[in-house]
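Long-time lurker, finally posting.

We've been working with Formamidopyrimidine-DNA glycosylase (Corynebacterium occultum) and I want a structural starting point before designing mutants. I don't trust myself to interpret raw outputs, so I'm hoping someone here can both generate the structure tokens and explain anything notable. Sequence follows.
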Amino acid sequence: MPELPEVEVVRRGLAEHVLGAEFTATEVLHPRANRGQEGSLPALLQNAVITGVGRRGKYLWLNLGDSWDSEDAGNTGDAVAGGETRGVDKQPAEGGGHEGTALFVHLGMSGQMLVGEPGKVTSPHLRIRSELRTPTGELLELAFVDQRTFGRWLHTETTPGGVPEPAAHVAMDPLEAGFDPVATARKIRTKRSEIKRVLLDQTVVSGIGNIYADEALWAARVKPMRRASALRQRDVLNLLVESRAVMERALAAGGTSFDSLYVNVNGASGYFSRSLNVYGQEGEPCPRCGTPIRRVMWTNRSTHFCPECQVL
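Top reply, 14 upvotes:
Generated this for you. Predicted structure of Formamidopyrimidine-DNA glycosylase:
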């Protein structure tokens, strides 16, 4: 499943290519890709303008606004992690009703958001496609490809902060500007569960999945099975610092791709998998102390750690 760095790579690509574009046509090709939708997705998106591209943890969305005449399409904006938007300053054309709404995107296990020329995507796993018109009049296609059909698009209302309602329960992630590591560390230390389980709890801290939890725990020298409440505040703070650091490195590498299921909006794979210290490295020497990395099955997940130097 794509984790925070992979979703952020996609968010940045979408912001670069489709920000300010208007939905002119949408076709749902598989009902699971729009499950739970009230009303017709093509009708709900018609003439909506993409005013921001937001993300919180592993969740992605396109903030929507009312359409405008092409001659008013001058200044575009961007959205940063957490759903904060810098609005698009344009005059709306007739036919509004899109303010305060968003296209919520859950990539699931294998979802891909691809941008290109209309008709370019011919994948048998194409689930939804939309035609977009940019402020300069260029036509683009936004395609949702999802082999395993666990992902979906959902047109929804947003909270006052611009976050879609399906993501409103999700905690802030370590890359958000408003993330409070001290308060988050305190919350983590109230939990009696194992620290890795707490890191994966999206209501405590979002965006950290199995890969980056293992990598951050190794970097902070913390045992994955250690009870969160037994850790010192400074150790949890350091763990959050390492979580942010490992995800920033992954982001710089375009994310982690083990197969062709995760790609960015141009169809390119990330290469952070070449830099992993423990995840997927069972039996290999620990980069820090040389002890063979161990892999155990825990809560139906593979957990990788160094039995020698992860001592906290």
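Before you design anything, note these points.
Strands lie at 22-28, 49-56, 59-65, 101-106, 111-116, 126-133, 139-146, 152-157, 294-298, 301-305.
The first strand starts at residue 22 and ends at 28.
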